[in-house]
Design brief:
Helices cover 37% and strands 16% of the residues. The protein has 10 helices and 7 strands.
């Protein structure tokens, strides 16, 4: 494990031990349910990305999946819930794996994405969401994801400006995004006979309406606009509920391909026979919005 990865691991171990003011584990994903709290902000963007990923997975015939960089196990548990297949999760952080076991009771194995502790083609599909932008050797990580996959690899990454990436590298930012992605970033995998389909999600054109529908008090800034928004949060929650977020997810799915976007989704097909042009299962926003763990982790 190189020094950068070691520092990232240390950062993650601390992150996945966090508790909020009520003593509940502060989740990265909305594990406790829609607007249930106890998690980081900007969940509508996470819902949009998750909707795109579940739709990508719905095109495959498969019996097993692993989520690499899977944090507290949210997406792998969601895949099990929707598709009824065997799942595992893996993260660089031991603490993240502990949370996955506690919250979802799914197998979780700690490991470095650049040297994964799994056999060749051990899983039908490998998912890796917002992970590879943090690794030192991007190509090695991509090849490892492909190595352990029998049918496909699905990767999502943030599409950020070059200057942001350069600043992260220059300042050696902990757990920073250190790679710029383009539509052809993973084309080197085509040389080995893999097909690559690129999708987009979390359209930046929906950023402001997403923040509005989020209906979370803004804890940063002290402008008059912030104060007005915070005063109306209870009303926004009342009139713009789960249905508004479901609309947002469907809207994003339709317009992302033709707009400036925040997330690239790469579908790397290894076994062409496992892929269907049409979805094999219809995924709805409510498949995601209604999903939650029944465990309020760490509650005192």
């Amino acid at each position: 494990m190189d020094e950068y990865t070691r520092k990232t691991k240390d950062w993650l171990e601390k992150r996945y031990q966090k508790r909020d003011s009520e003593g509940v584990y502060l989740a990265h994903q909305p594990v406790y349910g829609f607007r249930a709290g106890h998690c980081e902000p900007f969940n509508n963007s996470k819902y949009m990305v998750t909707f795109s990923l579940m739709n990508a997975i719905s095109h495959f015939r498969f019996d097993s999946l692993i989520d690499i960089g899977g944090a507290e196990g949210y997406k792998s548990a969601l895949v099990k819930h929707i598709f009824g297949v065997d799942v595992k999760t893996s993260d660089l952080s031991e603490e993240a794996c502990n949370r996955a076991r506690e919250l979802y009771n799914i197998p979780a194995i700690a490991g470095d994405i650049q040297e994964l502790p799994f056999e060749d083609e051990e899983f039908d599909i490998t998912l890796s969401s917002e992970t590879v932008e943090h690794v030192t050797d991007l190509r090695k990580a991509a090849r490892e994801l492909l190595r352990i996959s029998k049918k496909a690899v699905i990767i999502s990454v943030p599409n950020e400006p070059e200057e942001v990436i350069e600043k992260n590298i220059e300042e050696e930012k902990e757990h920073g995004h250190i790679h710029k992605f383009r539509i052809d970033t993973f084309d080197f995998l085509k040389e080995e006979g893999n097909q690559i389909i690129v999708k987009k999600a979390a359209s930046k054109s929906l950023r402001y309406i997403s923040a509005l529908i989020e209906a979370e008090e803004k804890k940063y800034g002290s402008s008059t606009l912030h104060r007005i928004y915070n005063a109306f949060v209870p009303l926004i929650r009342l009139f713009l509920g789960k249905g508004a977020t479901a609309w947002l997810m469907k809207r994003d799915f339709k317009i992302s391909e033709n707009s400036e976007n925040g997330i690239w989704v790469y579908i790397i097909i290894k076994d062409q026979n496992s892929y269907s042009e049409k979805p094999l299962r219809k995924i709805t926003p409510y498949d995601i919005l209604d999903f939650k763990t029944e465990i309020l982790n760490g509650k005192k």
